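Retry 2 of 3 after timeout on previous attempt. Resubmitting structure tokens to design endpoint.
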């Protein structure tokens, strides 16, 4: 363990898979995270069952990998630890089906805190509740494990009735390969609120809006859409790769001095800090969560409209044609 950081970080030597050797783990869902958790646990020697609906098209894929597949209810009944890896929006209904199968001392697990933090799932007082959340898409969790490498992850304990939650959570994190890279201890609140803020203000919302408005500004001023696409979208990857590798300084050192001076003096003008603070407030006071829950209950009318508008934006059409010209891009990695 290292406590050189604000939150403790755990590694392989802090975790012991034998702490869950007597447990059966039910993985509910076999999508991005589900297949990776199930296969990694299985290969680490942990007893795994996969819970899927009778109609699920993933049943065969899981069985072909040698995993035992049951309905979510039967899987939860057979298990001591139940990991919820169905989409966040369907977790409350799946939880309602399996709730009665959680015995005193069983463990309910999540890879994202939304439903617990915003009260959409309210577990009984006598079960342990925790989160083990890899910080990456499932296919990388699986690929890294197979290569003998790890994926960084998060551990959060919400409810510890047995006194064993942490050692079992670390054992699980080790079995899926996360302690090889490092597991940061956090809380459901911190994970949920930073995740929602990040995806709204910076990663998904912020970046796409910046790209789109940059593109529109150039095109509306008479520049060609192709030039606007390359300047505002395509080159973004090159810049982000540099930041990912070596932080802002590696990026500034790699671009021209003109780009550096221009960026340092003008960047601030495009960012609205108050807007970001409002987004954080909406996450913290539950306003965003309420909106999204209501939107789902109404069968997502606004979501569909936003999505259509995004799909019909000129940048998609130009981008589609340009990407076809360098279709080898994917294999170049
Ligand atoms: P996913 O959409 O890839 O997979 C969902 C699985 O649930 C599929 O197997 C699907 O068949 C099944 N499913 C869908 N509806 C169902 C229903 N009504 N009843 C039963 N099963 C149903 O989901 P995911 O991206 O792996 O997300 C799972 C959890 O992991 C979420 O809590 C998510 O926030 C979290 N998470 C995801 C990522 C990621 O990068 N994908 C990263 C970290 C955490
Ligand atoms: Mg049980
Ligand atoms: Mg237990
Ligand atoms: Mg998220
Ligand atoms: Mg340039």
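Retry 2 succeeded. Sequence:
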């Amino acid at each position: 363990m290292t406590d050189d950081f604000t939150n403790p970080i755990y590694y392989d030597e802090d975790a012991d898979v034998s702490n869950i050797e007597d447990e059966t783990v039910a993985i509910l869902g076999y999508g991005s995270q589900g297949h990776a958790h199930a296969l990694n646990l299985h290969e680490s020697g942990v007893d795994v069952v996969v819970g899927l609906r009778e109609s699920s098209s993933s049943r065969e894929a899981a069985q072909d990998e040698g995993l035992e597949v049951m309905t979510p209810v039967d899987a939860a009944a057979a298990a001591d630890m139940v990991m919820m890896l169905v989409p966040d929006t369907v977790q409350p209904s799946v939880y309602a089906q399996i709730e009665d199968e959680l015995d005193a001392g069983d463990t309910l697990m999540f890879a994202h805190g939304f439903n617990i933090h915003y009260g959409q799932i309210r577990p009984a007082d006598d079960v342990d509740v925790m989160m083990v959340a890899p910080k990456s898409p499932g296919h990388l969790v699986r690929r890294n494990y197979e290569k003998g490498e790890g994926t960084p992850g998060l551990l959060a304990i919400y409810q510890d009735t047995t006194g064993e939650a942490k050692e079992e959570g670390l054992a699980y994190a080790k079995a899926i390969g996360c302690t090889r890279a490092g597991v940061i201890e956090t809380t459901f609140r911190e994970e949920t609120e930073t995740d929602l803020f990040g995806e709204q203000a910076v990663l998904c919302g912020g970046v796409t809006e910046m790209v789109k408005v940059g593109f529109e500004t150039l095109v509306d001023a008479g520049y060609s859409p192709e030039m606007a696409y390359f300047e505002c979208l395509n080159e973004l990857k090159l810049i982000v790769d540099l930041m990912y590798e070596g932080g802002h300084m590696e990026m500034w050192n790699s671009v021209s001095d003109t780009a550096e001076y221009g960026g340092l003096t003008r960047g601030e003008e495009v960012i609205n800090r108050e807007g970001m603070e409002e987004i954080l407030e909406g996450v913290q006071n539950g306003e965003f969560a309420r909106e999204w829950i209501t939107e789902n209950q109404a069968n997502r009318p606004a979501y569909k409209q936003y999505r259509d508008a995004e799909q019909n934006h000129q940048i998609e059409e130009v981008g589609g044609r340009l990407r076809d010209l360098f279709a080898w891009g994917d294999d170049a990695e």
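Attempt log closed. The mean pLDDT is 96.
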